[in-house]
Design goal:
Order of helices and strands: EHHHEEEHEHEE
Shape: globular
CATH architecture: 3-Layer(aba) Sandwich
Structural class: alpha+beta
Strand content: 35-45%
Distance between the termini: 29 Å
Number of domains: 1
Helix content: 25-40%
Number of strands: 7
CATH superfamily: Gcn5-related N-acetyltransferase (GNAT)
CATH class: Alpha Beta
Largest sheet: 7 strands, mixed
Radius of gyration: 15 Å
């Protein structure tokens, strides 16, 4: 299996939008109504929103390719790009998205290792993330990676408020 991580830029906007929409839908459509899902996908992964995120100097996107096929991506945020106010020594792992056909191949660990590498490169001492409280597979994965539950925050899926657990790992 040939694995490549490449820096995502505005040149990759359409591929980023496609993999974002596909992976989010695959993961969450069964637990959410179609109207809320459509509203979220249209807002969170619009060309304008993704372009703004790509242009933020405090965010890094890495596309993950397996045998030249786009399998997923990583998004991390530092400083004021973080979705919650955190200490300056923190890096947020905002997204680890992997297409369903590439899951269970160890690719989540590849992306998490890259997040940890980026955090150390930026001289951060901890990384954190938010994960939906009902996403048991993701929570189990993060716990295996030594993340601990340290709080919670609200996440809006269309009109519905959901709870994300905040999980943190000391580096």
């Amino acid at each position: 299996m040939n694995i490549q991580l490449i820096q995502c830029t505005s040149e990759h906007l359409q591929a980023l939008q496609k993999i974002s929409r596909e992976t989010f839908y695959e993961t969450f459509h069964e637990q959410n109504n179609a109207e809320n899902m459509a509203a979220y996908l249209n807002e969170a992964f619009s060309n304008e929103k993704l372009t703004t995120e790509l242009q933020n100097v405090h965010s890094v996107f890495k596309l993950l390719y397996v045998n030249e096929a786009l399998a997923g991506y990583l998004k991390v945020n530092a400083n004021e790009a973080q979705s919650e106010k955190m200490e300056s020594d923190s890096l947020e792992v905002e997204r680890i998205y992997i297409s369903s056909k590439f899951q269970k191949l160890g690719l989540g660990k590849v992306l998490m290792d890259e997040a940890i590498r980026l955090a150390k490169e930026m001289e951060k001492t901890k990384i954190w993330l938010g994960v939906w409280e009902n996403n048991e597979n993701a929570i189990a994965f993060y716990e295996k990676q030594s993340f601990q539950k340290t709080g919670a925050h609200s996440f809006h899926m269309g009109e519905e408020e959901q709870i994300d657990l905040i999980m943190t790992k000391e580096l």
